């Protein structure tokens, strides 16, 4: 495993982060989830990402149980706040001071820790003044409940405004967690340049484009049984944008590139996002320990310019690049 600094802070995190969205507490039995976490630790992953909204708080509990016997100082534990939790009452959502303060306490209880290394705004909240949100984060940092603050899927302008307030309030905004893959490059035009300027890193999710970049979806073929694309509760809506034959035919052209490098297609996809110097870590989920053991081998892989060009030739024309696709709900979800 290799490690990178997160933003302009002194915090180092593993190049591969283990994330439990869509798996722990829902799709995967707890014993299997624990086995995946144990395997992640075994192969050198020290960074773990979750959120209070995942499986309506159950994912945090599963992760807390799996990590409770580990030396806390050797881990970097991240969680998030914004989406509805609990009974989804009128204050059980968003980035109000009330919801943030109540949510961090709930997260710490479920994760069985006194603090999280990174606490993230899971989306931008248009219904709460940004000053209120950032003041609440500042207080959480001063209370020692979070060491650093990050955001997720914020636009370049939102990141800049949040960073300015954080600086005035005396704490560090050090990360953004966006979707990023060779097929979803919407952060490259605005978010990445702004983040570089401000000393903020990306912790990216879905580096294998919801499984599409593994090559398991074939052009003109039925969707594989049990795949994410067939699971309406497990991200099928997100996969659909990539499931046209032109994209899938392009993805198949990646297989010989991966084979020449001695990589699986998933490893190639994860290695691709890690070539971006503004990316501190790629989040990897898993439903089996074997997936963890395989995909972690993308850490430390260097792709030369010729390989990057071949990947672009195969799928670059199909990649989404429109910066406006980075957005948050205009009103709080219920």
Plain-language structure description:
The chain has 334 residues and is an alpha/beta fold. The protein has helices at residues 30-42, 58-67, 97-111, 130-142, 156-169, 191-198, 236-240, 245-252, 254-261, 265-274, 289-295, 305-315, and strands at 3-5, 12-14, 16-19, 47-49, 76-81, 116-121, 146-151, 173-176, 201-204, 279-284. The protein has one domain (3-325): Alpha-Beta Barrel (TIM Barrel), CATH 3.20.20.100. The strands form 2 sheets. Strands 3-4-5-6-7-8-9-10 form an 8-stranded parallel β-barrel, surrounded by 5 helices. The longest helix is centred in the N-terminal third of the chain and has 15 residues, at 97-111. It is globular, with a radius of gyration of 19 Å.
Total helices: the number is: 12
User: If classified by CATH, what would the architecture be?
Assistant: Alpha-Beta Barrel
Mind telling me the CATH class? Alpha Beta
- How many structural domains? 1
The name of the CATH topology is TIM Barrel
Number of strands: 10
Strand content: 5-15%
Distance between the termini: 40 Å
In terms of quaternary structure, what is this?
A: single chain
The ordered string of helix (H) and strand (E) elements is EEEHEHEHEHEHEHEHHHHEHH
Strand order of the largest sheet: 3-4-5-6-7-8-9-10
Gyration radius, to the nearest Å? Answer: 19 Å
Helix vs. strand class: alpha/beta
């Amino acid at each position: 495993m290799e490690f990178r600094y997160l933003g302009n802070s002194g915090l180092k995190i593993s190049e591969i982060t283990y994330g439990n969205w869509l798996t722990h507490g829902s799709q995967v039995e707890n014993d299997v989830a624990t086995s995946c976490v144990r395997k992640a630790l075994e192969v050198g992953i020290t960074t773990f990402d979750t959120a209070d909204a995942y499986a309506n708080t159950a994912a945090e509990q599963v992760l807390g149980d799996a990590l409770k016997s580990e030396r806390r100082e050797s881990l970097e534990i991240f969680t998030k706040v914004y989406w509805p939790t609990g009974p989804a009452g009128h204050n059980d959502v968003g980035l109000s001071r009330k919801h943030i303060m109540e949510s961090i306490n709930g997260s710490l209880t479920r994760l069985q820790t006194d603090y999280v290394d990174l606490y993230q705004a899971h989306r931008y909240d248009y219904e709460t003044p940004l000053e209120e949100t950032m003041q609440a984060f500042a207080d959480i940092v001063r209370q020692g409940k979070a060491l650093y603050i990050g955001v997720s899927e914020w636009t370049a302008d939102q990141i800049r405004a949040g960073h300015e307030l954080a600086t005035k309030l005396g704490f560090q905004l050090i990360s953004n967690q966006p979707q990023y893959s060779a097929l979803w490059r919407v952060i490259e035009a605005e978010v990445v340049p702004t983040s570089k300027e401000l000393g903020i890193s990306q912790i990216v999710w879905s580096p294998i484009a919801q499984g599409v970049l593994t090559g398991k979806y074939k052009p003109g073929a039925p969707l594989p049984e049990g795949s994410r694309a067939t699971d309406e509760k497990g991200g099928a809506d997100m996969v659909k944008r990539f499931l046209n034959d032109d994209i899938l035919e392009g993805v198949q052209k990646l297989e010989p590139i991966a084979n020449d490098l001695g990589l699986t297609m998933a490893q190639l996809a994860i290695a691709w996002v890690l070539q971006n110097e503004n990316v501190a870590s790629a989040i990897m989920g898993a439903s089996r320990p074997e997936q963890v053991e395989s995909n972690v081998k993308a850490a430390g892989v260097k792709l030369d310019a010729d390989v990057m060009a071949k990947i672009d030739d195969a799928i670059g024309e199909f990649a989404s690049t429109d910066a406006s696709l980075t957005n948050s709900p205009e009103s709080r979800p219920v």
